[in-house]
């Protein structure tokens, strides 16, 4: 079981013991800096957090679209790690401007929830298929006709799940032109989404993530 006592890259206990504060000018023996330290960018901080959480694994893996890979980014590791979640929420928030958020079930739900809390922005959840019971909704949450929405995703490989979510939102009357993703595996998702007039923006690319492990 992962320890809850792991180092936090941007939180410290204040000297008077009154609580956790975000400092702006320290570094610790682990080499971590707070999110806004001028010598570290958010990408580096997030890569460090993903590596410490052991979310990046090497071997032979089968991917959801049927291909294989010699590395795997385990979204359920970083989506259940509080340090990763805080950094992801902060990084997403820097790219948002108050637009309603949407998360693709199941994987992106923790990401959209924590980002919603960080930005005080409402969100909806897009199911992969319509419920066969209850309300029968495909989209959970309040969504108005013509409302602008940004989709949050965990990992982009081909981008098909993001495209499906965008199309569902558009059919419901939303205006959707952007998808923000934590990790872009750089296997065609950006180009695939562009064919549907969707801009893909990633917090980390596979190239950046793998280069960090080679250093």
TrEMBL record:
EC number(s) per entry: 2.4.2.10
Residues the entry annotates as binding orotate: 157, 185
Ribosomal protein among keywords: no
Family the entry assigns: Belongs to the purine/pyrimidine phosphoribosyltransferase family. PyrE subfamily.
Pathway: Pyrimidine metabolism; UMP biosynthesis via de novo pathway; UMP from orotate: step 1/2
Coiled coil: none
HAMAP family, alphabetized: PyrE
Protein name: Orotate phosphoribosyltransferase
Catalytic activity: orotidine 5'-phosphate + diphosphate = orotate + 5-phospho-alpha-D-ribose 1-diphosphate
Known role: Catalyzes the transfer of a ribosyl phosphate group from 5-phosphoribose 1-diphosphate to orotate, leading to the formation of orotidine monophosphate (OMP).
Species of the source: Halorhabdus utahensis (strain DSM 12940 / JCM 11049 / AX-2)
Molecular function (Gene Ontology), one example: magnesium ion binding
Ranges where the Phosphoribosyltransferase domain occurs: 82-193
Cross-referenced CDD domains: PRTases_typeI
């Amino acid at each position: 079981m992962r320890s809850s006592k792991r180092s936090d890259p941007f939180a410290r206990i204040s000297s008077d013991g009154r609580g956790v504060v975000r400092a702006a000018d320290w570094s610790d023996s682990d080499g971590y800096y707070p999110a806004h330290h001028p010598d570290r960018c958010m990408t580096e901080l997030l890569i460090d957090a993903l590596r410490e959480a052991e979310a990046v694994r090497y071997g032979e893996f089968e991917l959801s679209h049927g291909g294989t890979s010699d590395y795997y980014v385990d979204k359920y590791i970083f989506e259940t790690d509080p340090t990763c979640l805080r950094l992801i929420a902060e990084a997403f928030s820097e790219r948002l401007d108050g637009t309603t958020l949407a998360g693709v079930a199941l994987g992106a739900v923790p990401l959209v929830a924590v980002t919603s809390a960080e930005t005080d922005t409402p969100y909806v959840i897009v199911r992969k298929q319509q419920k066969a019971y209850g309300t029968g909704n495909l989209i959970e949450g309040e969504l108005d006709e013509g409302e602008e929405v940004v989709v949050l995703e965990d990992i982009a490989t081909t981008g098909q799940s993001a495209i499906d979510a965008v199309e569902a939102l558009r059919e419901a009357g939303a205006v959707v032109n952007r998808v923000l993703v934590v990790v872009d595996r750089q296997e065609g998702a950006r180009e695939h989404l562009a064919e549907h007039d969707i801009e893909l923006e990633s917090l980390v690319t596979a190239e950046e993530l793998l280069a960090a492990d080679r250093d």
